[in-house]
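Sample A.
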Amino acid sequence: MPLPLSPTFRSVLGGATRPLAGMWVCTGSPLVAEICAGGGLDWLLIDMEHGPNGLGSVLAQLQAVAAYPPVPVVRVPANDAVTIKQVLDLGAQNILVPMVSSADDARAAVEAVRYPPRGRRGVGSALARSARWNRVDGYLADADEHVSLYVQVENVDGVDAAAEIAAVDGVDGVFVGPSDLAASMGFLGRQTHPDVIAAVLRAFAAVRVTGTPVGVNAFDPAVADAYLAAGASFVLVGADVALLARGAEELAARFGGSAAPERAGY
């Protein structure tokens, strides 16, 4: 029996009447991912770059959240065609590629998610969850419709090239990362420094000129609101690990116990 696939993040974002709010899923736990998926947010970012995630844990998390409304996006650890191929074969339909600093970087990511002749993704759909083991009619011919690609601008070079990156055919959105951007500007750990915020807004303006959706990471609600007012189409407003850490600290502060550790930034 032919099987359908879920709508891509590109499709959901394109049909949205408001910005979409999401959260990081960094623990590597399918159980935590499922708990987050039932929380009512619009999308989840399963993180392979900084989270303890390999192919097996990503697969388990995709399966765990599949029954819930939020759209899962997988951030791969690098702009690497082999890793991207493997993650797509797991059934990930939405990919975020970090550290994209030029149009050439963006074109490499596009090639990695597309089959020849438009790209260089390896063909293994009969063996993979991506095509539900050849149960999705016309998967190879229609593969571009089943995959959306987002690239992450997170340094000064990326901000400078944001318009060219956003204009690359096959890039469905640009996500700005203030943490690494701050570090590249000499403001390590100071994501809300006025110069960093100004650089984020400069990237926003450059991307929006091309008509490409732009998103950003902002755990501070006031900063998130400001970015939404500036035209962000999708935002990450929290993380599973941060919520657990802050919740544990609040319990310790309320009921006693060992001293809660001091923290800096978010």
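Sample B.
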Amino acid sequence: MRDATPLLRLYGWHRRRRLARLDPVRTQECELLSLLRRARDTRFGRAHAFRSINSVADFQQQVPLRRYEDFWRDWLKPVFPAIDDVTWPGRIGHLAVSSGTSSGTTKWIPVSRQMIDANKRAALDVLTWHLNAKPQSRIFGGPSLVLGGSTGLIERAPGVRSGDLSGIAACQVPLWAQRRYFPPPGLALLENWDEKLDRIARAAPPDIRSISGTPSWLLILFERLAALSPSDPRRLASWFPDLELVVHGGVGFAPYQTGFARWLEGSNAETREVYAASEGFIAVADRGPGEGLRLILDNGLFHEFVPVAELGAESPTRHWIGNAETGIDYAIVLSTNAGLFGYVIGDAVRLVDRDPPRLLVTGRTSYSLSAFGEHVIGEELEHAVAAGARAIGAAVSDFSVGAIYPDERRALGRHLYIVEFDPPPDAAAVARFAAATDADLRARNEDYAAHRSGGTGMDPPEVLAVRPGFFADWMRARGKLGGQNKVPRVVSGALLNDLRTRASS
């Protein structure tokens, strides 16, 4: 395979020069007005008088915020699956099937031809920043392993196919890149996730240069690789000596960081986070881990930011790059080149820089624990679990948290953590994990600390350590194994009861 990295290096040099000159405010305003021009003669564009919109302020006045349920009810469902000139010109050719992590319901997210092209450009941004960090890279000297969903898309109407977004992306790999893409078409088509993982582990060539996927599923793949070569050190370098890059996204990385560090020992590979939702490729790490993800401003998305505390208000304040502030928890809102406008995607973010804009993903807007008034957000839970794992020298493969309410046996409620560790800890280590997690949350969150003070509001957290593979089995039982499906971080009701019963058995 000929090393195409010199061509990528040339592209990256030009791309970084363009980004260095880019004015964030002007770029985002131009991006919005371009989207409105494209969609002005659609049913949605006519209904919202897109032709009369000349500024961000006009747009925010004429186009209200909408959640998925609003778009689905009023615009997508009446014509589904043949969505023609409704919110975006032409027929929407692909529908990304979202796992519905927050709502528990399946979502059909429109994916236009323009969105597919934008996602490809964003993927090149990931490689651009990798080359910037590692100028001697030979990232295109070997194949890239992408752990995604099945490419076996379902035809819903003439010219309309649906499936996992990663499966849609795999079907759109350009011809020049196909020889550098693993798994090959026959293997990528598999829907049985267990079989797919096993066959990928067996067939992966040793000259893999990059690996991409959701952290929890990547860890399962690494275990399959280790099982095939039990005499080799449990390190990625044992199987992929030329590995340079591990791209991760989809869930917060903090709980998995210790585990990945172990797998990457003895390797020169770096990790690089991306923020790629079904609705669009939003941001990519241009610096080191934890320094924020750089918003992609010139690629078919217009970003708005609504303070999380105002999300349920009748007229919430709508900020954008022109006036958003650092250090505030915002719900991110997108307008996209697939026809979503003023769309609340359900993620919470916090800007850490303004020029260029960088953000941290702090969780889902519905992903928090406040059963007793403790107001713990997703970011705090993930960092607390990571702190607990460090305290006992273990890695976390996955976890969920729920609230256990008072009953006749216990006067106070508590948080229940169901955690899959690597390696499995003994009872004393589990107790230390619980104490360290509790202490970290007390230090991060004053409301939580107040409720835990003096034993008057909440009991100490309870931790159930589950066997290796527990969460994969649970997701399999729910029909949610693999692809972009994610273990829900905060669970309640029947979901918590089911998880607790399985964990206790």
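B remarks: The longest strand covers residues 343-354. The chain has a mean pLDDT of 92.
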